[in-house]
Amino acid sequence: PRPHPTFRVRPLTCTETRRGDQQVVHSLGDGAVHVSAARHDATFGFSAVFDAGASQEAVFEGSGMRQLVELAMDGFSCTVFAFGQTGSGKTYTLMGPLGQSDTQPASPALLGLMQRSFTCLLEQSRSRASDLALSASYLEIYNEQVRDLLSPGPPCALPLRWSKSRGFYVENQLSVEFESLEAIVSLLLQGSQRRRTSAHALNRHSSRSHALLTIHVRSRAVSAHPAPGQGWGAQGSARGACPSKQGTLCFVDLAGSERVKETGSSGELSVEANSINRSLLALGHCISLLAKPRGKRTHVPYRDSKLTRLLARSLGGSGITLMVACISPSSRCLSETLSTLHYASRARKVTTRP
Ligand code: ADP
Ligand code: MG
Predict the structure, then answer these.
(1) Mean pLDDT score of the chain, rounded to an integer?
(2) How confident is the model over 200-219, as pLDDT tens digits?
(3) Residue 26: pLDDT above 90?
(4) In sequence order, which ranges of the chain are alpha helices (DSSP H)?
């Protein structure tokens, strides 16, 4: 299968409207996106396009996210990643407004792909007869350092290692078991608050790190006896014959791509911006190599950044990936929008063997 690029155009923000920005990106239906501005006029095709009016639920149902959750429960490694310019709606798409305000709980209609997936995961795990163990780990990559967002105390860098059996993995990362929606949402909140953010010209609460939340789904082998209360011929006995499986569902909130001069960053901020841009460049490079036909493919330089090492399996190997390209419709963001569209179009050509 190929990664499914899903494309989401957010509404113009109040600031953009007040400034009189023009809306230059339009959805034409059937997966087509049209960009029209003074000197640009181009149409791109994707598997799904959501425009400014699309609800969080529509994005969850229409992007294939539900199927991805089910595949993770069947033992596949699944990844969803949101990318796009800073302020384009990545965090909103993944987490809803909860990403920004830590005082008020978000209204249920605004919950993002993550909370919706957790609900789906827990519902499914209750309805499936097999016994599932769920756990979560949460990391950020900040200035090329991997940090655990769940472990208490000040963030410390963890080593990223490689082994033949596991591929790239983070040593000593915490993995926390959970059984309820409240528990996993509270882990998500705790971790998100520890994420490194800085204010700059494009977004007041911009994430300065890439964050990876991974849900591990481990199915324990079940005994052949159906659990009490299950009818004759319940799935339990059939599933009991299955060996234990382990699937993962990883949510990647990439730090935004940006031009240092547009954001008014300097000093420490420009160091951050450079390391963000460098790892996004490495990711783009791996994706464009992976997009070539197998025979023509040269070595894929996963080792070029921590981000590509951690995503190696989901990008090229045995994973299933859903990409959500987020963009702002504003005329001011045109050049970043075009680069996001090209990036996503390239990623469409990558195939994996789950
Ligand atoms: P990013 O994570 O890409 O930097 P955010 O998710 O923080 O961007 O979004 C930037 C701003 O736009 C936030 O104020 C957010 O609430 C708003 N926003 C983003 N997407 C939408 C949307 N689909 N509907 C309404 N507001 C949105
Ligand atoms: Mg963000």
Answers:
(1) 80
(2) 444 444 567 899 999 999 97
(3) no
(4) 14-19, 56-62, 65-73, 90-95, 113-127, 181-194, 235-240, 260-263, 268-290, 306-316, 334-347
Tokens of 333: 């963001």
**Cα–Cα distance measured from residue 208 to residue 276, given in angstroms and rounded to the nearest whole number:** 8
**CA-closest residue to ligand 1 atom 12:** 89
**Which ligand is closest in space to the CA of residue 211?**
2
Q: Which domain holds residue 208?
A: 4-97+108-221+244-348
Q: Give the ranges where 101-170 is alpha helix by DSSP (H).
A: 113-127
Q: Cα(251) to centroid of ligand 2, in Å?
A: 13
197 lines ligand 1 (CB under 6 A): no
Ligand 1, atom 11: nearest CA belongs to which residue? Answer: 87
pLDDT of residue 317: 65
In a domain, 336, yes or no: yes
Which sign does the torsion angle of CA 316, 125, 220, 234 carry? negative
Ligand 1 atom having least distance to the Cα of 88: 3
Confidence band of 256 (pLDDT split at 50, 70, 90): confident
> Is the distance from the beta carbon of residue 198 to the nearest atom of ligand 1 less than 6 Å?
no
Report CA(298)–ligand 2 centroid distance (Å): 33
Largest CA distance in the chain: 69
pTM of the model: 0.85
Report how many domains make up the chain: 1
Two structure tokens written together for 116 = 């919706």
Cα 207 to averaged position of ligand 2 atoms, centre (Å): 5
pLDDT over 50 at 70, yes or no: yes
Surface-to-core class of residue 353, CB atoms within 10 Å of its CB (0-12 exposed, 13-18 middle, 19+ buried): exposed
Q: Which atom of ligand 1 is nearest to the CA of 86?
A: 4
Tell me if 22 is assigned to some domain: yes
Instruction: Say which CATH number the domain at 193 has.
Output: 3.40.850.10
| Residue 231 lies inside a defined structural domain of this protein | no
**Residue 65: inside a domain, yes or no?**
yes
